[in-house]
Task: inverse folding
């Protein structure tokens, strides 16, 4: 079974631009969560989606947004990029929400550098 | 103060040593505790998963949870150079319908051959 895939793997953008990152979950998984990983803050929860609906959101500004499609693929968008948005963006997929089992799998991440 | 605290290291040990990695947390609602391993340029990979207090063993890895002290540990026996990675603790209360995990910042481990 193929794992979680994220595209692109690397991105370089300049301040003020916007960016869209994509995540394809494991086949059959309907929940996708997004995290931002930085050296100082570690992994921080951005948001999660299930059945095309955002179910939970972390403490990030409105410049960070996302969506989920009917095939469970998800995208996240960051507008008006700032230097501090440079990070590894990870998505994780799971069959459902709140399953209380070890079924959440992470993708390899997209490394975003903002210059 | 962060909800989950983890010593960032780096921690350097010789091959064959016993490694102890730890996290403390403040939210008593957490019931599910996980350890992830992350190699450079890779996503986190789930190593151990524990519910509530107690010990769980899987090969060379043992996870311990002490809810009364709000303290969790991961022990690695007979450490190998291939264990060199960042180890992340994570936890969740699953009180609502959410998969949201709260992570420690990770401990960088280097096992020297």
Result:
């Amino acid at each position: 079974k193929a794992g979680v895939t994220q595209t692109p793997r690397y991105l370089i953008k300049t301040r003020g631009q916007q960016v869209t990152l994509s995540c394809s979950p494991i086949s059959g998984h309907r929940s996708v969560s997004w995290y931002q990983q930085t050296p100082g803050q570690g992994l921080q929860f951005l948001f999660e989606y299930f059945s095309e609906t955002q179910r939970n959101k972390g403490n990030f500004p409105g410049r960070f947004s996302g969506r989920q499609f009917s095939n469970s693929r998800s995208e996240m968008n960051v507008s008006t990029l700032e230097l501090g948005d440079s990070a590894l963006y990870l998505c994780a997929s799971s069959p459902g929400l709140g399953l209380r089992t070890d079924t959440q799998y992470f993708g390899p991440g997209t490394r975003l550098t903002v210059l | 103060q962060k909800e989950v605290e983890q010593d960032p290291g780096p921690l350097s040990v010789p091959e064959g040593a016993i490694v102890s990695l730890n996290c403390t947390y403040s939210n008593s609602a957490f019931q599910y505790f996980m350890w992830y391993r992350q190699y450079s340029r890779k996503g986190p990979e789930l190593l151990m998963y524990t519910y509530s207090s107690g010990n769980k063993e899987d090969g060379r890895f043992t996870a311990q949870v002490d809810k009364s002290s709000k303290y969790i540990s991961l022990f690695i026996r007979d450490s190998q150079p291939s264990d060199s990675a960042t180890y992340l603790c994570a936890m969740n209360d699953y009180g609502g319908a959410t998969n949201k995990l709260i992570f420690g910042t990770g401990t960088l481990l280097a096992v020297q051959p």
